[in-house]
Design a protein that fits this description.
The structure is a homodimer. The first copy, chain A, has a five-stranded parallel sheet with strand order 2-3-1-4-5, with helices on both faces. Chain A is of the alpha/beta class. The two termini of chain A are 20 Å apart. At the A-B interface, helix 1, helix 2, strand 2, helix 3 and helix 4 of A face helix 1, helix 2, strand 2, helix 3 and helix 4 of B.
Amino acid sequence: MLKIKKLSQPLNSPDHIVWYNSHVNRRERNILNQHASGVLWFTGLSAAGKSTIAHGVEKKIFSLGIRSYVLDGDNVRHGINSDLGFSREDRKENIRRIVEISKLLVDGGLIVLASFISPFKEDREYVRKCLSGDNFYEIYVKCSIQECQKRDPKGMYDKARKGIIKHYTGVSAPYEEPESPHLIIDTEKYDIADSIKLVLNYMDREGLLTLNKFYE
Amino acid sequence: MLKIKKLSQPLNSPDHIVWYNSHVNRRERNILNQHASGVLWFTGLSAAGKSTIAHGVEKKIFSLGIRSYVLDGDNVRHGINSDLGFSREDRKENIRRIVEISKLLVDGGLIVLASFISPFKEDREYVRKCLSGDNFYEIYVKCSIQECQKRDPKGMYDKARKGIIKHYTGVSAPYEEPESPHLIIDTEKYDIADSIKLVLNYMDREGLLTLNKFYE
């Protein structure tokens, strides 16, 4: 059962306002929002269900008054990283920028739901290291390549098999399985609704949906 | 007088939760937060007071329960744009990325307080065009180059005059004055406290501190 703990006094109360010289910080934003901020990093093959789960989690926690933001290919590759391709170097820069944006969003009080294939162990280790102070959790959305190819909602695997798309993860480029993710969601065992529940339960256990873990 | 208008029902009430297939959008986040999101873009010479005013505004509106985020050289040039220098091309890319980050933050429900010299008219026009759907306001923090050089809190003007720093705005690189900013704050006429008040009054008049303008 997910519960949002309320402070005894509303944040707008003057008693809570401390004026000093430093900037508004993350802790203060978390208290205003009444929830922690952090990063859930969803990794896995294309069509494994990463973005669907991330958006489902966002919808659910929003209904609990929790602020989050999904970062995925849609708003990153078409926005800030529109200048980047898929070479090894560009993939690294892609990840580096996503990490930096995540830091800003976490500092700004949001829970980042980052949904990226992020196939390379080296990149994921970089992410984990950079975000270690930011309530970072790696979630492996697990699904066999056979099943992903069967789902193939965008027809990308088909194009990759035909060689129309090159260096496609799982077909012509490697996906290095996470060795020690915080959570594994096997979407061949669980449907989307249950996968979302698993993430929510995990967030609840980790205290990400309240202020308990971090400030009390 | 700044007032935060409250909805008659709390957002956590099930009556407010509409489940459908699209993502959580900006409007919904604004309603949860009980305030609009948008961008105040502070432009002006180094030492004119941009960042001090931006942080002061943030502190003040935070005390009113309004979520904002300051983007400035500190968290951008040392973070996501740490790979960029000060060539014309890099300055353009710097601005492009800040615009894209601003879009994410506004979509995420925050008021962005962007504090950048942004000396070129062409760049500011690009910013204005890109953010035209995001409650964008250009604020010119005006101060004579003589006064900025006198203040010189980081000793940068001194170094620029000695040629140690090259292409420094106002000394060896141009600052193109804004022609039609939304607001001008002359920091030779107003001290910091009054400058902050001018911005707050402007935000209030524009309805940025409530939901009135945008959703009622």
